[in-house]
Amino acid sequence: MNLGSLCRRIAMALFVAACAAGPVVAFAVDDPSEMLPDPKQEARAEAIGAQLRCLVCQNESIEDSSAGLARDLRKVVREHVASGESNRQVIDWMVARYGNFIRLSPPVTAATLLLWGMPVLALLIGLAAAFLVFRRRPQVAPLSDAERVRLDELTRGS
Amino acid sequence: MSDELASRPSADERRAVTRRRLMMGLPLAGAGVCGIAFWKMLAGMQSGSFNPHDINAPVTGRPVPVFTLADQTPGTGFSAEDLRALSKPVLINFFASWCIPCIAEMQALLSLQKRLPIWGVAYKDKPENAAGLLKHAGNPYARIGSDREGRVAIDWGVSGVPESFLIAPGGTIVWHSAAGLDGDEVMAGLDNVLKRIGA
């Protein structure tokens, strides 16, 4: 094996390793000291934070954002998790202060019914349209004797 | 006679034409409705009556959260009890010296404090910096508390300074603005609420 191919192999291995590690690196808090010492609790806090909208960036979760408010909210989430609260309780605490807007996945309410029902609704509309189109397809008259003879000739020819 | 019969469209043909027209009209009607909706939305965004980025603070209509704020020079801090004990409305204004829109609204606050008392909260600010701003730009606040860690602001549902809350006598939050108080629409909203609660 020459040196060039060895270099290429090493570069490839590094690239694969970087790709594998990428999401982990991107999904991390700014400062390791923010993290809870208990890995189980930290994982729960991260899962809760991933469902909460950063109110500054608005399209990022507080786990992904490096805004000051997001950092404060991460800290609050970790305090609540460490004190033994359930995921539900932590999210309710946030909703009481910032409204449902803070939830990246909105709850089913009268206002979001159309949003949540759309996949089922679209499927039903599609099925209904398909049913109507296929039912209206014109009936094809059976071949006459002359046509059948002609068809036989043509297919025999091939 | 037979010619006349042939030229007249049959019921089936007429139905087909109606259906074709409907199929052509429906997308046009749909596009029209969408167009009107977009136009209304954009007009609302321009006039300020609709803001997609506005975070509707759910604290409006609720009693003030429990909190205590330390003194911020040149004022004295305050707590939820102080707000509950009020017999006149007061405006709570979260500000910071590092926040440009806050500095921009100071002039409006200075003229507003002639109508109703404004209590300030220095949000995540070094006390000396907040004091420096008020010395430089003028101090519109009757009382000033310091929220160094920004934790009190979270209980109020503050997402970014400046933010203001109108507190009715008895300590109920009756109005909220996530925008600076130097805009005409915002001031009109505040005027309406002040009239409603009789102040």
Automatic annotation (TrEMBL), chain A:
Residues 18-154 form the CcmH/CycL/Ccl2/NrfF N-terminal domain. GO terms for cellular component: plasma membrane. The keyword Transmembrane applies. One of its GO terms (biological process) is cytochrome complex assembly. The chain crosses the membrane at residues 113-134. Residues 1-28 form the signal peptide. It is a single-pass membrane protein. InterPro entries: C-type_cytochrome_biogenesis (IPR051263), CcmH/CycL/Ccl2/NrfF_N (IPR005616), CcmH/CycL/NrfF/Ccl2_sf (IPR038297). The keyword Lyase does not apply. GO terms for molecular function: metal ion binding. Keywords: Cytochrome c-type biogenesis, Heme, Iron, Membrane, Metal-binding, Signal, Transmembrane, Transmembrane helix. It holds the Pfam family CcmH. It is found in: Membrane. It comes from the Bacteria. Belongs to the CcmH/CycL/Ccl2/NrfF family. PANTHER family: CYTOCHROME C-TYPE BIOGENESIS PROTEIN CCMH. Required for the biogenesis of c-type cytochromes. Possible subunit of a heme lyase. This is Cytochrome c-type biogenesis protein. It comes from Acetobacter oeni.
Automatic annotation (TrEMBL), chain B:
One of its GO terms (molecular function) is antioxidant activity. It is found in: Cell envelope. GO terms for biological process: cytochrome complex assembly. PROSITE patterns: THIOREDOXIN_2. Its main location: other. GO terms for cellular component: cell envelope. The keyword Transmembrane applies. The chain crosses the membrane at residues 21-42. It comes from the Bacteria. Residues 58-195 form the Thioredoxin domain. Keywords: Cytochrome c-type biogenesis, Disulfide bond, Membrane, Redox-active center, Transmembrane, Transmembrane helix. PANTHER family: THIOL:DISULFIDE INTERCHANGE PROTEIN DSBE. This is Thiol:disulfide interchange protein CycY.
